[in-house]
TrEMBL record:
One Gene Ontology molecular-function label: sodium:proton antiporter activity
GO cellular component labels: plasma membrane
UniProt xrefs under InterPro entries: Na/H_antiporter_dom_sf, NhaA
Protein's name in the database: Putative Na(+)/H(+) antiporter NhaA homolog
Membrane topology type: Multi-pass membrane protein
Alphabetical GO biological process terms: regulation of pH
PANTHER family according to UniProt: NA(+)_H(+) ANTIPORTER NHAA, SODIUM ION/PROTON ANTIPORTER NHAA-RELATED
Keywords: Cell membrane, Membrane, Transmembrane, Transmembrane helix
Length: 214
């Protein structure tokens, strides 16, 4: 049986979509466990303390933090390697205007803004919700742009949707382009939404009254 499973597993791991398919099954298993009597045991397992140290340097954290922080560090390390490869190989600037990467970039930029800003506006207008105190629509718009910075799910879905390495590279280009534009635009929009010194002082001390002019 091992001789049959090993080649199948090796072929599966060589596929571009292997990571995405694995994540889907892991997410499905997590949903099943979260809605079953195994939830308590699962939470206890995540809280198991794991200690790593060298000399006087010791890290004592539960398994959950090791998974979250450790895997995220590995994930962004791999993203950095992908970006470095694209930079070293070199890309034609016109590649970003090809239909696939252009569609992904515009989907991130326009889709997130339309979804977050649009539904927030609709919720306020219908009375379902209200803007928090000292929050304006420009800030909501800036946050919707920052939400367009997407790596994990965008690359995950791209790896599932396309089998060709060239198409996967186009997906990465679109994700990187859209995320970069969203980060820059969101930064400047939120920066412009910052209150002035007088406004910040008034918000910090709302009871302060301006002295009447003589």
């Amino acid at each position: 049986m091992v001789s049959r499973i090993a080649p199948m597993l090796r072929d599966f791991m060589q596929k571009e979509s292997a990571g995405g398919i694995t994540l889907i099954f892991a997410a499905f298993a997590a949903l099943v466990i979260a809605n079953s009597p195994l939830l308590g045991a699962y939470k206890s397992w995540l809280d198991i303390p794991i200690v790593a140290g060298f000399g006087g340097f010791v890290i004592d954290k539960p398994l959950l933090l090791w998974v979250n922080d450790g895997l995220m560090a590995v994930f962004f390390f791999l993203i950095g390697l992908e970006v470095k490869r694209e930079v070293l190989i070199g890309l034609d600037p016109m590649d970003a205007l090809a239909p696939l990467p252009l569609g992904i970039a515009l989907g991130l930029l326009i889709g997130k803004q339309a979804g977050i800003l649009g539904f927030a506006w609709l919720a306020v207008k219908t009375g379902i919700a209200s803007l928090p105190e000292s929050v304006n629509w420009r800030q909501i718009h800036g946050l919707s742009l920052f939400a367009a910075i997407g790596f994990t799910m965008s690359l995950f879905i791209g790896n599932l949707a396309f089998a060709s390495p060239e198409q996967v590279d186009a997906v990465k280009l679109g994700v990187l382009s859209g995320s970069t534009i969203a980060a820059i635009a969101g930064f400047f929009l939120l920066r412009s939404a910052l209150p002035t010194a007088e406004e910040a002082q008034a918000m910090a001390d709302p009871e302060a009254k301006a002295e009447p002019a003589e």
